[in-house]
């Protein structure tokens, strides 16, 4: 695992956007796995700026979703599909034909999970997977004690994650869905390059456990230690307990 300490979130975003741009220059139709949450926004802003300045052509890029709420209509502004359309696809000039993700509205949720696994494989696998990290060490929505070999499946959010994510639902925890579909940890580990960004002191404990703790299901992000090409980018705050 490579750990890179950057001065701030903007610098982290720039560094990772450049890695994505380099990948696209080498493989224009790369499958980019993207994450939601506030942390990756500087990455998307920096990549969009590069595309608009003509520094990289993203017109053939493909975008894959990491996780999704169950039961939120796709057009709900906080469904991750909507968030990614707004924050990633539209700024990059991509249509939804470039997008793949699990169907959080499917009646057959298990079938939706299995079909997303198949779609990822048929697409040739994820080239670069961006990850954020929850304050409890979760990646995607793999909460603590998720199996390190898990595949895409339905999960129940912990109360901590519902509290953390209530800010996207007007601060009302009652509006946060209880169930989600997430790529499993085993699924995530199949991406060719994993890039995790964490910023702020609130992530310092989770980053210390990820980088210096044992590989253990209690900190799902520690599974990155098992990956041959994992990069953890942290600002001074997130690095403060290393
Ligand atoms: C959610 C997402 C994760 C993300 C996490 C952290 O739980 N499912 O993919 O990493 O939030 O979000 P933030 O970056 O806003 O702290």
UniProtKB/TrEMBL annotation:
Inhibition and activation profile: Allosterically activated by N-acetylglucosamine 6-phosphate (GlcNAc6P).
Active-site residue list: 67, 136, 138, 143
Feature type site, description Part of the allosteric site: 146, 153, 155-156
Catalysed conversion reaction: alpha-D-glucosamine 6-phosphate + H2O = beta-D-fructose 6-phosphate + NH4(+)
UniProt keyword terms in alphabetical order: Allosteric enzyme, Carbohydrate metabolism, Hydrolase
SUPFAM superfamilies, alphabetized: NagB/RpiA/CoA transferase-like (SSF100950)
Pathway: Amino-sugar metabolism; N-acetylneuraminate degradation; D-fructose 6-phosphate from N-acetylneuraminate: step 5/5
Record-listed E.C. numbers: 3.5.99.6
Residue ranges of every copy of the Glucosamine/galactosamine-6-phosphate isomerase domain listed in the record: 10-225
InterPro entries associated with the record: Glc/Gal-6P_isomerase, Glucosamine6P_isomerase, Glucosamine6P_isomerase_CS, NagB/RpiA_transferase-like
Keyword Metal-binding appears in the UniProt entry: no
Domain of life: Bacteria
CDD domains per record: GlcN6P_deaminase
Function: Catalyzes the reversible isomerization-deamination of glucosamine 6-phosphate (GlcN6P) to form fructose 6-phosphate (Fru6P) and ammonium ion.
Record-stated family: Belongs to the glucosamine/galactosamine-6-phosphate isomerase family. NagB subfamily.
PANTHER family according to UniProt: GLUCOSAMINE-6-PHOSPHATE ISOMERASE
NCBIfam families linked: nagB, PRK00443.1-4
Name used for this protein in its record: Glucosamine-6-phosphate deaminase
Organism in which the protein naturally occurs: Streptomyces graminofaciens
């Amino acid at each position: 695992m490579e750990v890179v300490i950057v001065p701030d979130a903007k610098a982290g975003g720039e560094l990772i956007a450049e890695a994505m741009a380099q990948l696209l220059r080498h493989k224009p139709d790369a499958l980019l796995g993207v994450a939601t949450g506030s942390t990756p926004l500087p990455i998307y802003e920096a990549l969009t700026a590069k595309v608009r300045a003509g520094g990289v052509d993203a017109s053939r890029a493909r975008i894959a979703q990491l996780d999704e709420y169950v039961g939120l209509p796709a057009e709900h502004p906080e469904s991750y599909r909507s968030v990614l359309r707004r924050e990633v696809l539209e700024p990059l000039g991509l249509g939804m034909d470039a997008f793949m993700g699990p169907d959080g509205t499917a009646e057959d949720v298990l079938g939706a999970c299995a079909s997303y696994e198949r779609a990822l494989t048929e697409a040739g696998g994820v080239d670069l997977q961006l990850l954020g990290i929850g304050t409890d060490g979760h990646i995607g929505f793999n909460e603590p004690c998720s199996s390190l070999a898990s595949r895409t499946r339905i999960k129940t959010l912990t109360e901590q994650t519902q509290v953390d994510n209530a800010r996207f639902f007007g601060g009302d925890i009652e509006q946060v869905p209880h169930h989600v579909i997430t790529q499993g940890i085993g699924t995530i580990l199949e991406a060719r390059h994993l890039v995790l960004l964490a910023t702020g002191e609130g992530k310092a404990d989770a980053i210390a456990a990820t980088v210096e703790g044992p590989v253990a299901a209690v900190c799902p992000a520690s599974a990155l230690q098992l990956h041959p090409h994992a990069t953890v980018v942290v600002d001074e705050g997130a690095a403060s307990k290393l």
